[in-house]
Amino acid sequence: xxxxxxxxxxxxxxLTTFGDIRLDHSLDCHHSKIQTFGKxxxxxxxxxxxxxxxxxxxxxKAVKADFSTRDTTFDTLIxxxxxxxxxxxLNAKDAEEDPYETSQIDSVFxxxxxxxxxxxxxxxxxxxxxxxxxxxxxxxxxxxxxxYDRYKSAKDIAMAGAEAGAMFDTSSQLPLTFKTVxxxxxxGQ
Length: 189
Hints:
five-stranded antiparallel β-sheet; 10 strands; alpha+beta; 4 helices; globular; 189 residues; three-stranded antiparallel β-sheet
């Protein structure tokens, strides 16, 4: 995902893998890895099970999902965790040294307020230019870093990142999907 000027874009590949088995976009009716919750577009990585769980849990009235800012996202994750454990049988145990139970979900998301990521221990970050998650993230970050100052649009930057991931990562594949949003104007812009 990237932001530039008054626009943000999230892009993703369309391959799902189960160990050594690859589910190509042509065989998957729901191949887009970008989910939309209200006015937020989110790419969730990790277990394929996260897709259906997120669709239901983020629409649960008890969760009151709000991804508009870093703080509201954190509050959403606090409300989400017990729902994941009780309703979806989340295995909240990861590594012994983890300071908190894990929600097992990592994602990036965009909305009119910016570009963000949330991670399994309920960390939430807001980014100024770009970020990536998933198996091809290191390739995507390198590509977006290389083109950021040369490309004029957030879409072109995000697509360059996702294309690099699909080119070099064995768990990623074209075609890509993407969503863009207009960003709210903030002071000083």
